[in-house]
Amino acid sequence: MATTAQLFEEPFDADEYIERLAWRTPGGGSKGGAEAFDPKRLLDEFKCHIEELKQLDEKIQRKVEKLEHQCHREAKEFAHKVQDLQRSNQVAFQHFQELDEHISYVATKVCHLGDQLEGVNTPRQRAVEAQRLMTYFNEFLDGDLRSDVFHNPDKIKEAADIIQKLHLIAQELPFDRFADVKAKIASKYHDLERQLIQEFTAAQRRGEIGRMREVAAVLLHFKGYAHCVDVYIKQCQEAHVREKLDETRHSDVEQYLKNLYDLYTRTTALATKLTEFNLGSDKHTFLSKLIKNIFSSYLESYINMEREYLRTRGAMILQRYYDSKNHQKRSLGSGSIQELKERIRQRTNLSLGPSIDTHGETFLSPELVVNLLQETRHAFERCHKLSDPSDLPKNAFSIFLLLVEHLCVEHIDYALEIGLAAIPSSDAKNANLYFLDVVQQANSIFHLFDKQFNDQLMPLISSSPKLAECLHKKKEVIEQMEVKLDTGIDRTLNCMVGQMKHILTEQKKTDFRPEDENNVMIQYTTACSKVCGYVSKQVEHVRKSMDGKNVDTVLAELGVRFHRLIHEHLQQFSYSSMGGMLAICDVAEYRRCAKDFRVPLVLQLFDTLHSLCNLLVVAPDNLKQVCSGEQLTNLDRNLLHAFVQLRVDYRSARLGRHFS
User: Fold this and answer.
1) What's the burial of 238, exposed, middle or buried (CB within 10 Å: 0-12/13-18/19+)?
2) How many domains, the chain?
3) By three-state DSSP, how is residue 630 classified?
4) DSSP labels for 353-410?
5) Coil, strand, or helix at residue 429?
6) Bridge-partner residues for 575, per DSSP?
7) Which phi and psi angles does 352 have, rounded to 5°?
8) Does 347 map to a domain?
9) What pLDDT, in 10s, does the model give residues 368-406?
10) Which of 97, 480, 520, 659 meets the CB 3.0–4.6 Å disulfide criterion with 641?
11) Cβ(421)–Cβ(353) under 8 Å?
12) What Cα–Cα distance (Å) separates residue 561 from each residue in 409, 555, 606, 635?
């Protein structure tokens, strides 16, 4: 169940869950990784996994039943306690009713007394208030605000109450006689209103809810109260965003980027919904400006943090993989010397150094590739949402370059270099050829890379000048990898031919000049049998490692080299009549093996070679007729003559006269 628990992580995504399970199953990927795609093996793995999930479900169900039983027991106990409390509550309620009746009686008496006192006190308070306002009005009229209430910041609440009332009184005064004093009162009104809003903002930032309540109660009677509401909403948004982002900005960049993307996405979605309401003619501009004010400081530094995170995360994923293989990355070198070695290797196929033994390891990991592509996919999604439209193509291109660096250069290209270094020399015996496995996995990985390029990067840059740069970079990467793939395949084919040549060294001269011409029981020689067996395995290996037209191209090249080797090999022997028949049988077996290539050119070459071998057994008088046959008529006469010279009776039968 450990595997299930690892796959079953939050947030759960069913598609990704199945995909990861398939990747972990040998033979379960799109091309099966190092093994061929095996649907039955994948089905068995799914059935086994389903059984594990059923066992987990039964375990959880038993736990649920246990908890339900415990819940029922505690519910009964709670019910008994509630009944006891209800009885106690009923007694208390009776006492409360008696107390309430007594309080009501006393309250009635108090209210009556209060009404009598208010009738006497209210006119007096109004007169005092009017006198006080007249005193302050005279100060504005004289232009000299002497009262401490207008200068003491601690009395701003009292000053606001006075100025608000004076402002209402000033509205009723005639403009021609009181224009100056009305202007002074209005100026002080707006000044106090501004101070109150600033005090409200400062209190909100300090988290002083009580002070905010006091200031808001004062501002309630001012015209700028609506602005106070706007400030409150803006501050609430900024405080929430700051709380979610600042705590992870430097401690957990991955979580910071996720939070930023989530908050910005939800905020823009909310703004879209708000546009459905009547917020004025410039509602879109207002909402956009509000969002920009909240997130501007975070969006300005977004792409730098995104790049730094991807650079660090990619390096960690790569290092974790190589550590799991107990592999210390080799320095592949740089500069003019390395470039010179690369050019020489491409042109001569020389190894330029001792080969290394990778023990069959390709150093390519489908799981690593999935992780890198997944991180990049999330980065493209964030880039699309968080980048300014004018910077989007540039930012997307920078993310693409990091993917190229980590996936194509640090992983695929490195694996190709290691694979090239591991290819043995062409004269090595019993060499294990793993480079074709590297080719297979590299092709599979690049298909995934190409899919992400088309599905996620192209929509972000398709209408910008960065499109040309991206396509050029992709072409450059492809060409660099193709050069190394072609070099590795070519050297691998040389190794195959070298192995065939080594097998053919077992061929004895007596194979084609048997001592007893009348007692030859074999259909073809042992060396021929071993070569054909080896070639068939390599053909199958090529088919599993390549796709599309590459299969035919590589098999055609291997077939041509195979034919050249056999052609040169046959010219090293002399043939008796029975030996010539054995040579024809060998070539017939080689031709049967060549049919596995499914390449017309290769089959044609071996058909021609088979016809050439007929020259080893044909009667001397029929040589001219055979050389004029359909298969041989277009061949060079010197080549035909060279084959005839291999006959042991060449001199005795004076066969050379047929070519003079």
Assistant:
1) middle
2) 4
3) coil
4) S-----TT-----HHHHHHHHHHHHHHHHHHHHHS-TTTHHHHHHHHHHHHIIIIIII
5) coil
6) 647
7) 50, 45
8) no
9) 999 999 999 999 999 999 999 999 999 999 999 999 999
10) 659
11) yes
12) 32, 10, 12, 19
Residues 6+ apart with CB under 8 A from 275: 283, 284, 287
Across the strands, what pairs with 647?
575
Q: Which amino acid is at 377?
A: R
| DSSP assignment letter at 658 | G
Q: Measured between alpha carbons, how far is 580 from 616 in angstroms, rounded to an integer?
A: 5
**Cβ–Cβ contacts within 10 Å for residue 159, how many?**
24
- Let me know whether 87 and 123 are in one domain: yes
| CATH assignment of the domain containing 651 | 1.20.58
**Residue 107's domain spans which residues?**
38-142
d(CA 486, CA 491) in angstroms, rounded, equals: 9
Does one domain contain both 312 and 270? no
Percent composition of the chain: helix, strand, coil (DSSP 3-state, to 5):
75, 0, 25
Contacts within 8 Å (CB) and 24+ apart, 129-134: 132/162, 133/162, 133/165, 133/166, 133/169
Domain boundary among 490, 518, 549: 490
Instruction: Give domain status of residue 511, yes or no.
Output: yes
Answer yes or no: is pLDDT of 491 > 50: yes
Residues 64 and 155 in one domain: no
Cis check for the bond before 620: say yes or no (omega within 30 of 0): no
DSSP 189-208: HHHHHHHHHHHHHHHHHHT-
* Mean pLDDT (the chain, rounded): 81
Do 178 and 122 share a domain, yes or no? Answer: no
pTM above 0.70, yes or no: no
Same domain, 68 and 172: no
Q: Which are the contacts of 7, defined by CB distance < 8 A and separation ≥ 6?
A: 17, 20, 21
In a domain, 58, yes or no: yes
Q: How far apart are CA 358 and CA 378, in angstroms?
A: 34
Q: If pLDDT is split at 50, 70 and 90, which confidence band does 510 have?
A: confident
Judgement on whether residues 549 and 613 belong to the same structural domain of the protein: yes
Residues 138 and 204 in one domain: no
**Are 522 and 582 contacting, i.e. CB atoms less than 8 angstroms apart?**
yes
Q: Which two tokens stand for residue 211?
A: 């002070």
Contacts of residue 6, Cβ cutoff 8 Å, sequence gap at least 6: none
Same domain, 235 and 192: yes
In 2-38, where does DSSP find H-type helix?
2-7, 14-24
The answer to whether residue 9 is domain-embedded is no
DSSP per-residue letters across 224-238: THHHHHHHHHHHHHH
Distance of alpha carbon 566 from alpha carbon 612, whole angstroms = 12
647, 650, 652, 655 alpha-carbon torsion, rounded to 10°: 140
